[in-house]
Amino acid sequence: MTFGLVEIVQLIALYHAGLMGVVILLHPRLRSLGLLCISFALHMGFDLGLNTGLVTLQFDITGAFGLLYGPFFYLFVRDLCFEHQKTHWLDALHALPAILVAIVRPEAPISEVLGYLSLGVYIGMSLMILREHRHLTAEIRSDTDVASLHWLELVLAFFAGLAIFDIGRDIFSASLRPIQDDIILSTLIMSVPILFSLMTTRSLNHQKQKAAFPETLNKAEFTDSTEPTDTPDFNANFIDVDQLVRDEELWRDISFSLADLAKHTGLAPRELARSINAGSGQSFASYINSIRIEAADKVMAESGNTKQALGDIHSDIGFASQATFNRVYKEQKGITPAKALNAQPSTNQ
Predict the structure, then answer these.
(1) Which long-range CB contacts under 8 A does 110-114 form with residues at least 24 apart?
(2) Of 206, 264, 274, 313, which sits 20 to 30 A from 187 (CA to CA)?
(3) Burial letters for 123-133: b for 16+ Cβ neighbours within 10 Å, e otherwise?
(4) 136-150, 190-204, 242-256, range with the lowest pLDDT
(5) Which helix or strand (DSSP H or E) is residue 220 part of?
(6) Total Cβ atoms within 10 A of residue 212
């Protein structure tokens, strides 16, 4: 039995994704990612079996795997965004199209087309969940960069790009030389387990940061209520809250959250968020960051244009990193902190 380039790559991908999937299954909140890895490993296994003759055409169910990637990806995104997400038997219905295709085994390219359509729909659903998580992050946490899932949006875009690229490869495969097609296919295959590894690493870090929100929480609790936000109660609350935050310098805490502020004030998080929206016209994160930027300007004004002023300023005023400080400062001021510092009168003059 002779293995070509594609078969060798499939064998490596099968081993890598399969082993990784089994290990990931040990993490309850990453089980959907583990099932995604195992599905890909099985897909590679059946493809390898068909290419080497170990699997006959009557057992060819490779078309069904394309209908599993979208559902498992969606469930993985959902579990990463919202904690205490209970596994329900209805989740198993997501696999029903794949089971039907495995039983019926429609002729090509029907199963492939269904797989691409399914992936597109589930990627769209995943992006909707990520958008809600991004909104809630701004309303609940001040360290939005730490809790951000922007990387996952890029992963979704990359998988969509892979699907489009694979469609193009199928369309133009007749015009490619066999060796060219093998190299392209091998590259596509190997990129998937590599991406799975990156997703696992970032997901574990996301869990460490406790950046998932309760499943009962949604953005409507903060902004979509029919109760107007410009009522005297909300405005009065904000005056008291703003004084507390500034007097006790709560904003210096890098991981300061709406829940932390609720403990200091005795107000419910929802009421706090709406009070801040009403009084400042900003989300919780933007409000806290605006105070931090005010503190940064004060530090730079007092130090003149000495470059030491930018050394550890970001941690002193509550930012997790210099990059985050630079980004937020430019968003609010239109220039970088370095340019703002240079504009200060020199203490040496």
Answers:
(1) 110/63, 111/63, 111/64, 111/66, 111/67, 112/63, 112/66, 112/170, 114/63, 114/66, 114/67
(2) 206
(3) bebbbebbebb
(4) 136-150
(5) helix 220-223
(6) 20
Task: Show the tokens assigned to 171.
Answer: 């369309």
Query: Cβ-count burial of 208 within 10 angstroms (0-12 exposed, 13-18 middle, 19+ buried)?
Result: exposed
pLDDT of residue 349: 41
Quote the CA–CA distance of 67 and 128 in Å, as a whole number: 20
> Per this entry, what is the length of the chain?
349
Q: What percent of the chain has pLDDT over 90?
A: 48
Evaluate the omega torsion of the peptide bond into residue 228 and state whether it is cis, within 30 degrees of 0. Answer: no
Exposed e or buried b per residue across 271-291, where buried means at least 16 C-beta atoms within 10 angstroms of its C-beta = bbbbbbbbbbeebbbbbbbeb
CA end-to-end distance (rounded Å), the chain: 81
Mean pLDDT of 336-345: 80
